[in-house]
Specification:
551 residues, mainly alpha, two-stranded antiparallel ribbon, rod-shaped, disordered N terminus, GPI-anchor, heparan sulfate, glycoprotein
Length: 551
């Protein structure tokens, strides 16, 4: 006999309109009218006092200050405002990455410019015709180095080899003006002279060090741009219909219910935002790999690859090579004549510039190692801070933008009324949203734009991994990067060895293939609590006399 009073009481509670503390008197809608007008909407048709809410399709259908038109307008407004929040958060990350790229790019270009200027300033007075008649060879070298750094499709080793070959041909002719040397003879000369290292060890040593430095610098600079571009494109992904409804319920339904001063429950906000940004959270794994890879390459740039010394002293290495050739001129010439025969005597005599050509250039390297060290330290700090961007974004938006209440608040907006929020907070990523009580998420349909950006992160991480071990990668040909990328092993052990060694299988559970439709969702569907089933829930509770009500 105790069932009837319990059931009758609960049904009365369920059917009674929620009017807060105002008793039977309809509350004023002045606060909602003020908010509605501030958002740019006409106040025509906006209720002065609460009305019955059976017409509402998103907010709870109790007494309300919102008409159907107001609810629709608020829903559209909440969508645009949330997307603006996403873009604003993204712009902050873009600004950080772009600033890091700009700083390093300026530093690196300055190194090249100073080296080239030092060469142009010192060589004419020391080498005379050796320089003035071959200035284009030097200009072409620096031009090729810049083109390579800017990601042009150039083979750096071939460009350096071509420079030394052209330089040797021209210097050999200038140092032997008494002979008539044809192009055919020069071809033979180059083949024989290379065996005897006319420039000493400089070409080989510079090729090894410069290629490593340029590969690392180019990949490093490109990594910042790719990261920034990924954030920009992901921030522009539109919200789903289900997400728009959930955001509206979170942000504006309390106003419609006359609870404008009540802040959303923190965990409620987290579940809404995690459901809306489920696909974005799946960027986390590859994003962290990119940040880690940039940090490792930054250490290479400021450490073993010694970019400051290698790039800043290119002109000095060239001068050293020319001096080696001058010192070994007679022996090199004799060996070339022995292999290629004696060229014909020229009618032209020795140049008056001969003494200048035999001079030695004295150059000083102005180190900017301290500037590079500061750049790298600043970059590593920012990259470390950005590692968890995608999985901390929901809590950041809830606390700073939605202004959710504290986690312990039991008098917050929980989606239905003022009270506590009982459901647990969902995990991060698409697969973890199957039981999200606030946003209906189809985990079998990942967002293709975001999947494409995950692939871009993998490709860039792979390039940085190659740069870390001194391997060149063609930035215009990504066919090799695309093949086999589904395995998720895009971060080489050299780059990510520390994290891989700690947990060799950590990447497997977070692969980015489309989740299977079976295995996760069977139990989850029946466990979702649907608003339309609230009356049935209360009837069931009445029969079993529960101690707790849902929300």
């Amino acid at each position: 006999m105790r069932v009837f009073p319990w059931g009758f009481w609960l049904l009365c509670v369920a059917s009674a309109p929620a009017r807060g503390d105002s008793g039977s008197k309809a509350r004023s809608c002045a606060e909602v009218r003020q908010l509605y007008g501030a958002k740019g909407f006409s106040l025509s048709g906006v209720p002065q006092a609460e009305i019955s809410g059976e017409h509402l399709r998103i907010c709870p259908q109790g007494y309300t200050c919102c008409t159907s038109e107001m609810e629709e307008n608020f829903a559209n407004k909440s969508r645009s405002e949330f997307e603006a929040m996403m873009k604003e958060a993204g712009r902050s990350v873009q600004a950080t990455l772009t600033a890091q790229h700009r700083s390093f790019d300026s530093y690196f270009q300055d190194l090249l410019n100073k080296s080239e200027k030092a060469l142009y300033d010192a060589f004419p007075s020391v080498y005379g015709e050796l320089y003035t008649q071959n200035v284009k060879v030097f200009k072409d070298l620096y031009s090729e180095l810049r083109r390579y750094y800017r990601s042009s499709n150039i083979n750096l080793e071939e460009a350096l080899n071509e420079f030394w070959t052209r330089l040797l041909e021209r210097l050999f002719k200038l140092m032997n003006p008494q002979y008539h040397i044809t192009d055919e003879y020069l071809d033979c000369m180059v083949k024989h002279a290379e065996q005897h290292k006319p420039f000493g060890e400089v070409p080989r040593d510079l090729k090894v060090k410069a290629t490593r430095a340029f590969i690392a610098a180019r990949s490093y600079a490109q990594g910042f741009l790719v990261g920034s571009d990924v954030v920009k494109k992901v921030s522009q992904v539109s919200l789903s219909h289900e997400c728009t409804r959930a955001i509206m319920k979170l942000m504006y339904c309390p106003h419609c219910r006359g609870m404008s001063s009540v802040r959303p429950c923190n965990n409620y906000c987290l579940n809404v935002v995690k459901g809306c940004l489920a696909n974005q959270a799946d960027l986390n794994t590859e994003w962290k790999y990119l940040m880690d890879s940039l940090i490792v390459v930054a250490d290479r740039i400021d450490g073993p690859y010694n970019v400051d010394t290698v790039i800043g002293t290119i002109h000095m290495r060239i001068a050293e090579a020319i001096s080696n050739l001058q010192e070994n001129k007679d022996s090199i010439t004799a060996k070339v004549f022995q292999g290629c025969g004696n060229p014909k005597i020229s009618t032209k005599g020795s140049s008056s510039e001969d003494k200048k050509r035999r001079g030695k250039v004295t150059l000083e390297a102005k180190s900017s190692a301290q500037a590079l060290e500061m750049l790298v330290l600043d970059a590593k700090g920012n990259l470390t801070a950005l590692k968890t961007y995608w999985i901390t974004l929901p809590s950041s938006l809830c606390s700073k933008k939605v202004m959710a209440s504290s986690a312990s608040d039991d008098k917050c907006w929980n989606g239905m009324t003022k009270g506590s929020y009982l459901p647990e907070v969902m995990g991060d990523g698409l697969a973890n949203q199957i039981n999200n009580p606030e946003v209906e998420v189809d985990i079998t349909k990942p967002d293709m734009t975001i999947r494409q950006q995950i692939m871009q992160l993998k490709i860039m991480t792979n390039r940085l991994g190659n740069a870390n071990i001194g391997n060149d990668v063609d930035f215009q040909d990504t066919s090799d990067d695309m093949s086999g990328s589904g395995s998720g092993d895009s971060c080489p052990d050299d780059v990510c060895g520390k994290r891989l060694s700690k947990s060799p299988s950590t990447r497997q559970p977070e692969t980015h293939a489309i989740p299977k439709q079976s295995g996760h969702g069977v139990n989850g569907v029946s466990s979702r609590s649907l608003p339309s089933a609230s009356l049935l829930l209360l009837l069931s509770v009445a029969v079993i006399a529960p101690q707790h009500l849902w929300r």
